[in-house]
Specification:
heterodimer; A: 619 residues; alpha+beta; Immunoglobulin-like; A middle domain of Talin 1; eight-stranded mixed β-sheet; seven-stranded mixed β-sheet; 10 helices; B: 78 residues; mainly alpha; 2 helices; 64% helix
Chain lengths: 619, 78
């Protein structure tokens, strides 16, 4: 009821100034009958007007103008126009010139075919009004009956003349507390839950809003349902060409039902019935397939949920239950996120593979709840261009942004954003949004390359640092450092090579041992020859390296190499000869001889490593 | 707007992300090991820049693409 005084002023103003609009609308059309059915059963009121009209002019007409007073347009969630066969007609907001433009919002409905002179046609226009039910009383106890008032214009508001009209208001329950005005041709039928007016047979002029106290009709009735409104919905959609479309949606919910008298106490809440005007759960219907469904809210109020895939596998039903009921005047906020495989929403042009089409739901998944503001931001992959977007209905504002996400190094992601205010969708409405864009070529490989670069940079730095000595050097110190570095390298190689020599030597000693047990001369000879060849090769290599070492060590090492090889050959010969001669005789002397030789070799080896170590330490 | 369309399929099927991730990371790690063994066993003056760069590049290609698939397989899409 709080809107009524303001509405009255506007309505009176309209009635005074209607004549100026005639030219734009054209006075050819006359509405012969209109039957309005307003259904206030649900929180979102649907107002259906079945209209038949006649062309009384001389020219054909293909446009029909639909007028909504501004105060009502402010909470009109959707206008759906259909022709007599139920085919949807295109209805777009139309900027009308004249005094009415400030107080009336016009929609232009394009007819499928032209209405010739003297012909009639019928259309049906449905308006969904969110926020149209006002609780009365404003505050109630938790177990009181929840009652609402619905008010609307008594006469059909239109830029055309109307010959005959009816109005029927369906209420949520049989408890119709009151309705006004009470007229001769008005009646209420409790069993059918309706309040009806009409027929009004007196022809009314354009923009007629009634006279005196017969301008508005209001019905006061009990309403055992909450009145949820989404104050704000923000949808972020991120397209990844690696096979995923990510949805992140945040909701701010408000229950417009009657507020609570006094403080909230859990006792009456738990001991009596669940207050019917409190929001017990929230239902989202999200198109299937999806994965990674996730929800959270700031205060942890929503902690219970059930998820089920519909029988025909077209959507997922998610029920969220808050711990506290959301009573009248209370708020709730939560966020929902999920991933949709790209194959179900992203398409490619067969003839031009760089052209992609993203086809996603235009509406958020909490359908059948009126939203005051919906912000949608679609982030396309970095490098996409020539973006075109097609909406299933008008949007209020569109703009472009750039978003920097993971691995966006060279360019950000183009974001296409828009808001749709006063937003309502039913399950049956067509609500696909189509975004066409070009993407391909180098942009596809940009991110892998960035990650590869990320790994390559440390390697490159390591390689570079190995080639630098970051120190301030004295004169001549560089040569010295280089020499030391060289020596270190040589020493490490000498160690490696000596290991190779030892292997070759061990091979010879093994061959000697095997000759001892089974004296096959050719094998033994071959082993000796191969040892000679291999050890000479390695020793020569070592000698080449030793040349670069300082003089005293160089000589020592050369002597060592020579003597150790001699000793090894000697040892091998001793071992081989020992057994080949006689297994029993002179065993002890020969045994002690090989022991001496072994000890000598070990000593030599120790000397060798000592030399290397001392060199290293000096360096 | 667009008449002839077909569903978009990504370069690599989603089910292969995990396999690719660990295989490529393994190869990358082996190459990294080779690189570091090479670095510590050769002296400053005998390292070949070309060899170092080739191993480093190969290793970073495998680690990079493997790491990318690792992120994708855990659900971090970009």
């Amino acid at each position: 009821m709080r809107r009524l005084p303001l509405v009255c002023v506007i309505a009176c103003g309209l009635a005074a100034g209607f004549a100026s609009c005639d030219k734009a609308v054209g006075s050819d059309l006359v509405i012969t009958t209109v039957e309005r059915t307003i259904d206030t059963e649900k929180p979102v009121v649907s107002s259906v007007a079945a209209i038949t009209f006649a062309n009384e002019g001389a020219k054909g007409v293909s446009k029909f103008f639909w007028a909504v007073p501004k105060w009502q347009a402010n909470f009109t969630g959707w206008i759906l126009a259909e022709d007599e066969r139920g085919m949807p007609l295109e209805a777009t907001e139309y900027e009308m010139e004249g005094a009415e433009s400030e107080e009336v919002v016009h929609y232009k409905v394009m007819m499928k075919r032209q209405i010739e002179p003297k012909k009639t046609a019928a259309i049906q226009v449905t308006m969904f009004l969110g926020n149209a039910l006002v609780p009365l009383p404003r505050k109630i106890n938790i177990d009181d009956e929840h009652e609402v008032v619905y008010s609307d214009l008594l006469y059909f508001f239109t830029p055309y003349r109307v010959k005959e009209q009816w109005l029927k208001i369906k209420t949520a329950t049989k408890d119709i507390r009151s309705y006004k005005p009470k007229l001769k041709n008005s009646s209420s039928d409790v069993s059918k839950r309706t309040v009806s007016y009409g027929p009004f047979t007196k022809e009314t002029p354009p923009y007629y809003t009634g006279e005196g106290d017969k301008q508005f009709v209001s019905v006061h009735c009990s309403m055992p349902k909450p009145l949820p409104i989404l104050r704000r919905v923000v949808r972020d959609i991120e397209v990844s060409h690696w096979g995923n479309v990510f949805f992140h949606e945040s909701f701010q919910l408000y229950n417009a039902a009657a507020g609570l008298k006094g403080e909230f106490s859990r006792i009456p809440f738990m001991t009596r019935r669940y207050p019917p005007h409190a929001i017990e759960k929230l239902t989202a219907r999200i198109p299937y397939p999806l994965q990674g469904l996730h929800y959270y809210d700031h205060i942890g109020n929503i902690s219970t949920s059930t998820v089920a895939i519909s029988k025909n596998r077209t959507y997922v039903r998610l029920d969220l239950r808050p711990r506290y009921p959301i009573l009248g005047g209370w708020n709730a906020d939560w966020q929902l996120q999920y991933n949709v495989p790209s194959a179900s929403v992203l398409f490619v042009n067969k003839t031009r593979p760089s052209q992609h089409v993203l086809n996603i739901p235009f509406s958020h998944p909490i359908k059948e709840v009126y939203a005051e503001e919906v912000i949608t931001r679609i982030a396309l992959p970095a490098g996409s261009h020539d973006i075109q977007i097609r909406f299933p209905r008008e949007v209020q504002k569109q703009w472009k942004e750039v978003k920097w996400g993971w691995f966006d190094v060279f360019q950000g992601r183009p974001v296409y954003a828009f808001t749709s205010d006063r937003y309502y969708f039913t399950q049956t409405l067509q609500d696909r949004l189509e975004v066409t864009y070009e993407y391909g070529g180098f942009a596809t490989y940009e991110k892998p390359l960035v990650i590869i670069l990320f790994f390559f940079i440390p390697y490159a730095l390591y390689i570079l640092s190995g080639r630098f000595t970051l120190r301030i050097l004295k004169e001549g110190e560089k040569e010295q450092l280089d020499r030391i570095e060289m020596q270190k390298t040589i020493i490490s190689h000498l160690r490696d090579l000596y290991e190779d020599v030892s292997h070759v030597n061990d091979g010879l000693l093994t061959a000697a041992a095997s000759y001892r047990s089974r004296p096959i001369k050719p094998h033994w000879e071959a082993a000796k020859a191969s040892h000679e060849k291999n050890s000479t090769r390695i020793v020569t290599h070592m000698k080449e390296m030793i040349v670069n070492l300082p003089q005293p060590q160089q000589e020592k090492l050369e002597v060592f190499l020579k003597s150790v090889q001699e000793e090894v050959v000697k040892l091998a010969n001793v071992k081989a000869a020992d057994e080949a001669a006689s297994p029993t005789s002179k065993k002890t002397t020969k045994g002690s001889e090989s022991d001496t030789l072994e000890r000598k070799i070990v000593d030599l080896e120790n000397q060798f490593f000592n030399i290397l170590e001392s060199l290293e330490q000096k360096a | 707007m667009v008449s002839e369309i077909k569903p978009f399929s990504p370069l690599v099927h989603i089910s292969q992300f995990g396999n690719l991730a660990w295989t490529l990371l393994l190869v990358g790690a082996l190459l990294a090991a080779w690189f570091f063994i090479y670095e510590v066993t050769t002296g400053k003056f005998e390292r070949s820049l070309l060899k170092e760069l080739v191993i480093a590049l190969l290793s970073s290609v495998f680690l990079g693409i493997g790491g990318m698939f690792l992120l994708l397989s855990i659900g971090l899409y970009f």
